[in-house]
Amino acid sequence: MHRPSGERALGSIDTPNAVRGASTGFTVLLLGGLLMPLVATVAPPLGGVWLTATAILAFGIAGARIGNSALPARHGAVAAVGSYLLIVPLLMMHSASRDPLQMAMTLVAAIAVGALTGWLKARIGSDQREPGPVARSSAPPHRASGTRVTQARRRRGRR
C-alpha cells in the first residue's frame, strides 16, 4: 500500500513528533523519579505529591508536541502513553511499583493529560505549531510578499 509523502503508519499521528514527545516525557519521568528521595528528604510534604506532579508534567510535555497532527488530542494521548510505556520496565524492577491498579490509573492519567494537552495546544497555540512533514510551505521564508521590507524594496524599484 502506497502512502502519500507526509502520512505515517499511525494515520493522523505525526509519528516523529510523537516519538520526540514520548522521549521527552520519559526523560521527565526518569529525572523526577531519581529526584524523589532528595525532594522527600528536603521537603517531606512535597515528597508526598512529587511523583504525581512529575507524571502530570511529563504527560503534559509529551502531549504538547503535536506537530502537524490532524487529530491533536489522539496524538497527545499516544505521545503521553508512549512516555509511560518507556518507563514501565524500570518501574517493574521496584516491587512497590507493580500494583496493577496504580499502573492502570497512571495509564488513564497519561491518556487524559496527553489528550487534553494536545487538544489545548491545537486550540490555543495553533500559530506556534512545529513544522513537520505533513504540511510545509513551498515558498522560502525570506520571500514573503507581505513583509514591510519587501514592500519597501518594491517601492524603491528593487525586487
UniProtKB/TrEMBL annotation:
Keyword field: Membrane, Transmembrane, Transmembrane helix
Chain segments carrying region Disordered: 127-159
Transmembrane segments: 21-40, 46-64, 76-95, 101-120
Protein name, as recorded: Uncharacterized protein
Native organism: Haloechinothrix alba
